[in-house]
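<derive_structure_tokens>
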Amino acid sequence: MTINDFEKKYNKEDINEYLAQVKEQDKKINSFLYLKKDLSKEIGVPIAIKDMISTKGIVTTAGSKILENYIPPYNATVIDKLERNGYFVIGKTNMDEFAMGSSTENSAYFTTKNPKDLSLVPGGSSGGSAAAVSAGFVPVSLGTDTGGSIRQPASFCGIVGFCPSYGAVSRYGVIAMASSFDQVGVFANNIKDTKAVFDTIRGKDEKDATSFDLPSEKVSESNIIKIGIPENILEGVSKEVKIAFENTVTSLKKNGIEFVQVANTNLQQALAVYYILVPSEVSSNLARFDGVKYGKRENAEDLIELYTKTRTKYLGSEPKRRTIIGTYALSAGYSDKYYKKANILRQQVKDYYTKIFESVDLIMTPTTPTTAFKIGAVQTPIELYLGDIYTTVTKLAGLPAISIPANTNDKLPVGIQFIAGHKKDLQLLQISEKIEQCLQTY
């Protein structure tokens, strides 16, 4: 369902009938943690919001039991912008706890299912937001992307997932996982709707010092688009992903887009850097959930017992795991060995992309190495981490990237990722519209 489809189909009189349909149909998918009870006073386009984003007067849990009853007294900046521009929040979507996961199986409440096949995961951590759009419940939704949490579920669910440049959208009111990586982004069924929402939420915010206004420059229609493909980028991908990738290249070449091979940064090294830096920031950000200031708490005789009992009971295994890893990486005697070295390598990744984008407009990779996997199939955290190999590297450099559904002979969706230079978000979306048109006619 597109934004236009929704506006044609529903009006003020039958908006609650629409809500009832969503509630009934979502019993099979579990995309929503919370749905509004009455939409009769709402006007505009419904949008689903990942439960990581604060909404005034609506429970916001970050998928965690420790925030089960937390109701924010304020809106995130993106919510205020949406509500001023013709959108209304229909509900909050399920997610991996504190955005830590790649399947939505780490939610403290329940597992969301993939609308394309209910036996499969929808991806994560923004799995609920992706599933809500894929199922046709809403035309658009918001998620957050720390290491691929918009692009990966978009790929698994067969929709568009856009992660802007770091700072292009305000993070004010977004519950922090890893502050130098987290970014609000958009799910939609097409690039036009993606751009409409992005244009609404982007821009500098005085409440977020890292935010900025994007330059308005775009690609000239007369320019030949040049896309770089990193060497050996298809090593280790599934057959379905390889076919979809090769079909996409063939289609785009027929439509006048040029391809060149570019050097490949060490993806395994970048993944290792990511999983040192992010847990380090997790360790710091999750320290506030201690049972003292807000959220749930356990009865205790002293402060240490309060911390221990509360965090033991109400935090899930993945937040605990990453907190322990991050605390270790930041500890005395190890911070230089791990955290400091990882930051040096992060700069090298930024330098790599700066050099590459001197000669190409975009970089093209698979979004994920496989299609969606069965619920319960992945047994170890390391297996899930390796699934982020194509998406985490862009976050080290703060780059905009988008996953676009690609043609494949297999019934399961495959997403292809396109990456642009920092602050080149508008150019990325403009070129993505052309790419989308090419793939639709292939």
